[in-house]
Specification:
The protein is mainly alpha-helical. The protein has three domains: 107 residues, no CATH class; 93 residues, DNA polymerase, domain 1 (Orthogonal Bundle); 170 residues, Intergrase catalytic core (hpI Integrase, Chain A, Orthogonal Bundle). 51% of the residues lie in helices and 3% in strands.
């Protein structure tokens, strides 16, 4: 019976329903972003549902559709709702996502007063700090992201006491107490990032004339000895086994396989893969341009046949239609560029391949390529060029895992004694 009312996009009864025109616009908006039919119809129906409830009190207009009103609808009406012949207690777990999409559309349309500002108390401080890191310090995007995350957690831990005068009155004891709690599970490198992020915060406040110099360096750095770490590297057969563990039957299978092959072939960082754009692939010359957000440098590499075919398979069969120029997109609408790290699903591939390693992230493949090139007799300079290293000292660490060459210069026990 209800199917007769669908015109292929929305229920024609919405045209005269409270908030119906807005629901129709939402359905069209979400379809243009690539949302599946069931999702955009369900989200639009939720807007009509809200409109019918508000219409009982003559409030079914955009002026009354605010965050508190929507929150009350979700928290109080939906748990006991029996509208549309649904039994009371029916779970509408997706309702917050529906209204988030609705507000996003209204803001894009220029209806700016619908969603009152919900800025956290420290937002202004955080914006100024981030601007200092970018414009004054000139830090890379990945470093700014890490520093911002630690300072955001620090400011959030202060509750409402996050004004600049209150921050500069803190003591080193306050910073150490936060650092011990936030950094309890951090390694040496991550701890040092936390320490440097907090120091940069108070260096910025001092530079702006607010004071706080006494808190610069209040959280001590942990000693990290040069070349003290040994890279975790896989053997070539393990790398092939890891590539074979990518499940191509999953919706994200071809995308993940192409990214995994790029990392294994060129030793890319995860951020390098996420930064790849369609224009970086020169199919006529079989070349690939790699931009590293960490260093801000570009390098050109030959595009191998295996990588080219894997990327083409993804582009032809799985990449959603989008105006985005980023190569790899989220499989879930609205199909934005990837933001999350790749290590989680790479670790899943390690488990499926039955590979046990000290580390299971994407960086292991970068180490594996460097060690294999070293074993094949490549110079440290050429390996550094492939990996995009600025200094030969960065590449030098891989000589410690060239066991065969080290064994050739090892002394016999009798000689040592």
């Amino acid at each position: 019976m209800n199917e007769a009312f669908w015109n292929g996009l929305f229920d024609t009864r919405w045209e005269d329903a409270p908030l119906g025109p807005e629901a129709i616009r939402l359905a069209r908006h979400l379809r243009s972003l690539g949302y599946p039919e069931r999702t955009y119809r369900t989200y639009a129906q939720m807007v009509v549902h809200l409109g019918r409830v508000l219409d009982l009190d003559d409030r079914a207009d955009l002026e009354h559709v605010t965050e508190p009103v929507v929150q009350e609808f979700v928290d109080r009406h939906l748990p006991h709702c029996s509208c549309y012949r649904k039994p009371a207690g029916h779970v509408f777990a997706w309702a917050p996502r529906a209204f988030a999409s609705f507000f996003s559309m209204l803001q894009a349309e220029g209806v700016v007063n619908l969603r009152p500002p919900t800025e956290v108390p420290y937002q202004e401080v955080l914006r100024g700090y981030e601007g200092y890191l970018v414009r004054v310090r000139g830090l890379a995007e990945t470093t700014v992201t890490n520093y911002r995350r630690y300072v955001r957690d620090f400011l959030a831990s202060r509750g409402q006491a996050v004004t600049i005068p209150e921050l500069v009155r803190l003591t080193s004891t306050d910073l150490l107490a936060f650092s011990r709690q936030r950094g309890a599970a951090l390694g040496t490198t991550a701890w040092n990032h936390l320490s440097l992020a907090l120091s940069a915060l108070f260096r910025w406040l001092e530079l702006e004339g607010h004071g706080g110099r006494q808190l610069i360096g209040a959280v001590p750095l942990r000693r990290k000895y040069s070349l003290s770490d040994v890279p975790c590297a896989l053997r070539p057969e393990q790398v092939r086994s890891l590539l074979g563990a990518a499940d191509l039957r999953k919706p994200t299978g071809r995308r993940n396989y192409a990214m995994l092959l790029l990392i294994a072939t060129y030793g890319l960082r995860g951020c390098d893969v996420r930064a790849l754009r369609l224009d970086d692939l020169d199919w006529s010359s079989d070349e690939l341009t790699i931009f590293s957000p960490k260093t801000g440098r570009r390098r050109r590499m030959p595009l191998t046949r295996a990588v080219g075919e894997a990327v083409l398979e993804y582009l032809r069969r799985d990449r959603p239609a989008s105006s985005q120029r980023t190569l790899f997109l989220s499989h879930v609408a609205p199909h934005r560029p990837l933001k999350t790290k790749l290590s989680k699903w790479v670790k899943d591939c390690f488990e499926r391949a039955g590979i046990k390693a000290a580390r299971g992230g994407a960086h292991v493949l970068r180490h594996s390529l460097a060690v294999e090139l070293l074993r094949q007799g490549e110079s440290l300079k050429s390996i550094g060029d492939v990996l995009g290293h600025r200094s030969p000292e960065t590449t030098f660490i891989y000589t410690k895992v060239d066991i065969d060459d080290l064994r050739s210069v090892a002394l016999e026990p009798e000689v040592v004694s």
